[in-house]
Every structure is written in C-alpha cells, then in structure tokens.
Amino acid sequence: MSLPGEKLLVNDVHYHISDQGQGDQVVFMLHGMPDTSELWRHQADTLVKAGFRVIVPDMLGYGQTDMPQDPVRYGGEQIIADLLVMMDQLGWDGVDVVGHDWGAFASWELVLNVAEKFGRHVAISVGHLRGLFGNITEEMLQKNWYMYLNGQEEANELYLANRCAFFCDYVIPGHPDPDEVVSRISDPKTMRAMLNWDRGNPMAAYYHGVLSGALEYPDCQVPTMGIWSEGDHALWEEQMTDSSKYMKADWRYERLPGSHWVMMDHPQEVSDLILEWLK
Predict the structure, then answer these.
(1) Which domain CATH number covers 121?
(2) Residue 209, class by beta-carbon neighbours within 10 Å (0-12 exposed, 13-18 middle, 19+ buried)?
C-alpha cells in the first residue's frame, strides 16, 4: 500500500508522491526497505494536524513508483538527483527531512551535500555516513551480512520461495506487518526492484571508499536528531551515537525500545519526538 497521492515525472521515472497539508513548513519523509510511503502514515498525520505540509514519495522501485530493473538506476547519485529535482519541481526550499533505513542513507546524503536546502533533519536507524562506513567491526559484519546476500542473483529465488519465509525470518525479522510486505514483494519484478538498492550501491564499495579516503563525507551542518531502537537487527548503536563526532550543528540522540521499524512499533512516541524536534 501507499499513501494517497499522484504521479510526478522526475528525470526518467514516474514517482508516486503523497502531498498533504497546507503549512508553510515542509517535511520530506523518505522510507527504506521493504516499505512504501505508508510507513509514515502515523507521523504524517501528526505533522499535518500540527500545521506542516508533508511530502512522502514512494521511493524508486517501491509502491506505485516505477520499478526500473537495471540496478545502475538505483545508484546513490541518481537517487539524490531524483530527490533534488523533485524538490525543485514542487517548489520547496529550506525543507526539513526525515529518513529511515535506505531513506536515511538518502537523507544524510542530502543534508551533507546540499545543507543550504534543509532546515532540520531526523535520521532513524542510520547514523552519519562517515561513522557508518568508517569502521569495519565484528558487530557491523554480523548486522550487515544480508546486504551482501541481497547482491547475489540467487537471492531472488531464495527470497521468493515458500511465500518469502527466509526473507521474513532472516532479512526483515520483527517487521510489524510482514503479510503486507509479502503481498507486494512476491512479484518477481517488485523483488528485483527492491534488491536493486543493494546491487546499485554495493556496501563494499562505500566501505572501501571511506577507508581509503577516496570517498569523503563532510561534517553535518544541519541540526539532526538520531533515533535508534534497541531491537534493531540491521544497524548497531555505535554508528548512530558516533554521529556526534561529525556534527557542526545541534545533535540529539534518542534510544527507544522496538524493532528496526520503531515508527510502527511506537508511532505516537516517534511522532512526538519528530514534531518536537522540527518545531
């Protein structure tokens, strides 16, 4: 499912975009794997009621947005270019941005590279990208093993078998609505589009780039709140708390109970934290 919205042609892709509220302050909300814009339904409702305008796209390959089958189209530079064109077409500047999972990867890329376009930032699960990619630890390898599996062609067949049983048990354990996820990704084209995020952005290349100095992420100049949940199976706490080392703006850290999908586990608490930070 996706939030109600309309299609917008962005570069060569039709994005499905939900645009709610009439407020002058705009919040851009970006989801990750394996979700759609529906992930943010509770937070979007809270923000609209508080007077914000809330923009929530189905990210590339998800929901009602187009699903290119070439992984190259999912590369970070192309995703960020899409989001910036989207902002220009919809006529916003000085927007706030909230991201989770791959959406938080994108939100960090935005605030680190075009800080002047953003007011405040909320990153859920994913910390500053220099801290995320700058250390290879045993905990990181234990958490991120599935990202390397996602890059293998055989993953498609493995994940589709037995109504996505392996995928649900080992790749998205704790997801609050696995039945909804399975109903979407059981289509091979949808499954391939989802995995293309990992195939178009191989983690080994990012780690090598940061550790070798070929890829540099600047200090963050946009006030940022990081939220990490105690039951997060995919990201470890240190990569979030280390973000404080790479900030040249206000930083706030909140640790909550719940799974990787803490905004679904504790919708009101996460909504209240976001609202308080953005106000």
Answers:
(1) 3.40.50.1820
(2) middle
